[in-house]
C-alpha cells in the first residue's frame, strides 16, 4: 500500500467548537518505516501541549491522544521498552501521524475528548490489551424505566452518568441496583400492565420471570403495581444516580452480614463482590454530584502562546468558552458575554445538563487531580475585579 506523506492533504481533525481563538493548523509526518516517521518527529514536532492522531495505511484515524509535550509523547511510542505494550502495537499499525497544538494541557484534554467522541478511533475503544471500554449508567426506557448500560446513552433517559470502566463490574452493579429498587430488567419486547390500567376482559397477567415472587421486582408486567408506585421507585433510583441515596449499599451490607451469620459463605462472597461494585458506582456518583453542586465558576487558563482562555464551568460541565481579554477594549467587548454567563449561573437549582454534558467527568477529574487550580477560579460577577488585578500585575 502507498504510504501517506506529509505533502499529501492531511486527514484533519475538523472544527473545534471549544476553541475561541483562530483555528489551529494540522501538521503531519509519514513514512514506510517507523524510523522514517521518528526522524521527522524529531525534526518538526514541538515540545508544547496538543493532540495527535495515528493514521493507518489507508488514511483511517485509528488512535487519538493528548500530551503536555507532543514531541516527548510521540517519541515514547518508538522506545524499545514500549514494543510489546499498547503504544508499540499502535505504532506498528501507523503509517502517518498528525498533530494539532493546543495552548494548554486543559485545552488538549478537552480537544482529545471531543475528537474521540467524534471519530471513535478503533484503538481508543478496542484492540488494546488491558484497556477497559467506557460505559454509561442509564436510567430509562418507557413505560417502566430501569438501570442499564450503554456505550452511547439514548436521548430519552431519565438520567445518565459516567463514564464508568469495567463492563463486568458494572453489569454486576446494575443487576443489584434493579433488585434493590425493585425495578424490572426484562426486554423491551415484554408487555407491561399496570394495576390501574382498564381492560375489556378480566385477564390474569402472568409475570415474565421469578423476580416478582422473589420480591425483587414490582411486577409491572403482571399488573402487580400501579404506575405511581413504580414511579416512586424510579424516583428513589434517580436519587441514587444523583449521588444522594445509599440504600443499595445498606441493603447489600445487610445481605452479606446475614449470609455470613448463617454460615452461607458462598452467598456472602457473592454479596461482597456485588457490594464492592456498587460502592465503586456510588463513589463515582458522589464525585460527580459534588462537581454538579460546587463547580460553577470561570476557569482562566493561560496559553503558552498567548492564547489565554476563560472557560465557563456550570454545574460541573463546560458550558461556554471565550478568549480571555488582554486589554480594556477587549474586556469592554466581552461584557455582554459576561452578562449572559451571569444569567446562566444565576439559577442555583439548575445544575448543568447543558450543551456539553459529557464534560462532567472530565471537569470533575481534572479538579480532583489539580486541586490548586480551583483557587484561580472566579464567578462571572467577579470578572471585572479579577481582570483588573491581572492587568495591574502585568503592568
From TrEMBL:
<dbReference type="InterPro" id="IPR050066">
    <property type="entry name" value="UvrABC_protein_C"/>
</dbReference>
<dbReference type="InterPro" id="IPR035901">
    <property type="entry name" value="GIY-YIG_endonuc_sf"/>
</dbReference>
<dbReference type="Pfam" id="PF01541">
    <property type="entry name" value="GIY-YIG"/>
</dbReference>
<protein>
    <submittedName>
        <fullName>UvrABC system protein C</fullName>
    </submittedName>
</protein>
<feature type="domain" description="GIY-YIG">
    <location>
        <begin position="47"/>
        <end position="125"/>
    </location>
</feature>
<dbReference type="InterPro" id="IPR047296">
    <property type="entry name" value="GIY-YIG_UvrC_Cho"/>
</dbReference>
<dbReference type="InterPro" id="IPR036876">
    <property type="entry name" value="UVR_dom_sf"/>
</dbReference>
<keyword id="KW-0227">DNA damage</keyword>
<keyword id="KW-0742">SOS response</keyword>
<dbReference type="InterPro" id="IPR000305">
    <property type="entry name" value="GIY-YIG_endonuc"/>
</dbReference>
